[in-house]
Design a protein that fits this description.
mainly alpha
Length: 209
């Protein structure tokens, strides 16, 4: 989801021909994230699925910055619990489950990025004795909150119809929550140290390609 060079003002990605690796310092990480968020906002405004896929990937990236390492689902869920608004932690499904942060990882992140689907990964879902907790269509994505019959569903409202028990996620609201989480987390000195450790291990695209 880095700059493609297809819109005015975006710098195209170039092949890196230098031998040495450029290292980001702590003060460069937040501006880098802000630049990617600006690109994400443009993608989300198009009204298609790609903006959602890219913001799902960005949240995963942010979780690694905050942890300073790849802690898989634990880091993703901890990020949502710690830096997203309280509604993400308290949202209650019709089943009584309070696990939106799990569904965001297993369905929004894994399902969307790996298979362009809001269904859980088949192998993990059917694995005997597995701890996979993703439920089909436990999140529903929208740009304007409107259903096919014209009803409006607010961000993080509950959709419980036609056998679907889901949290409704709006593109713009999610974007603002992600942007706020980025600013809050990366303004913390000890987390900036962790972020520096992660980008040293995995330099982001657009810095070292």
């Amino acid at each position: 989801c880095a700059s493609s060079g297809t819109r005015r003002g975006a710098a195209p990605l170039r092949l890196v021909v230098r031998r040495e690796r450029i290292m980001m310092n702590q003060d460069e990480i937040l501006p880098y994230c802000r630049a990617r968020l600006n690109e994400l906002k443009v993608l989300l405004s198009r009204g298609d699925a790609w903006g959602f896929l890219c913001i799902a990937a960005y949240i995963d990236f942010l979780s690694k910055l905050v942890e300073g390492e790849d802690t898989k689902s634990d880091g993703y869920k901890l990020l949502v619990e710690s830096y997203f608004p309280e509604k993400y932690r308290t949202f209650t499904y019709g089943s009584g489950k309070v696990d939106l942060y799990y569904q965001m990882y297993h369905i929004f992140r894994c399902g969307l990025i790996h298979t362009l689907s809001l269904y859980p990964d088949h192998e993990q879902f059917t694995k005997p004795g597995g701890k996979y907790q993703g439920r089909p269509r436990s999140v529903l994505l929208t740009h304007d909150g409107l259903s096919s019959d014209g009803r409006f569903f607010p961000h993080l409202s509950h959709y419980n119809e036609n056998g679907i028990d889901a949290a409704v996620i709006h593109a713009n609201d999610l974007f603002e929550d992600v942007r706020a989480a980025t600013e809050t987390a990366l303004a913390t000195p000890n987390l900036r140290v962790k972020a520096r450790a992660w980008v040293s291990l995995s330099p982001p695209i657009g810095v070292n390609c």
